[in-house]
GntR family transcriptional regulator
Amino acid sequence: MSGLTPIDKGKQLLADSVFQYLGAAIIDGTLEQGSRIRDAELAEKLNVSRMPIREALQRLERIGLVEMMPSRYTRVTVVTDELVRASLAYAGYKCGIEIYATLPSMTDEQADHAVELLDAMDGALGDAAASIAARIAFSRYIASLTAENVYKQHLEDLDLALERNLTHVGPVVSDDELRENYRRLREAIRARDKVAAERLVREQFGL
């Protein structure tokens, strides 16, 4: 935990700030896979009380980024091949459902932006890091268009877990297949064809 620094105490709820801060630290490797977390030490490093630390850790546990054994240990979970496969499947269905739900009500401006992000995905093919970043940007934009509901916060939290689990996973289909997929997805977005769009998004994940 040596790379952690005191957290910015702004207007956001402190537990939320700690959750996002620790989530980012897990994603970028500041908190390494398998490393143990001691809430007292963490509270001192972040210059916050132990209560928001505990709340944030419980929230991270619910989405699988940490595991907690009461009175024994709290540690960052390890990304296994099985976890990657499960995360790919979940991400594919999640993104498919979100575009199915949002496409019919998209404004022309929103559809134009979705296509711009899709163009960025196309342009990033061949560059693993850029491709991953472009895919995350597209999926998060589509998710941002979903209506507010009781599950929205949970889905946003899960998105953080998916980013960690899939951050180094390249395309599961060939670049040529993706290029053709993106072309057809552009057409589906323009036509507001939610059925075709959902199918095409799932195909990007090999589903």
Observations:
- The mean pLDDT is 88.
- The CA atoms of residues 184 and 200 lie 8 Å apart.
- The two ends are 38 Å apart (CA to CA).
- The beta strands are 66-69, 73-76.
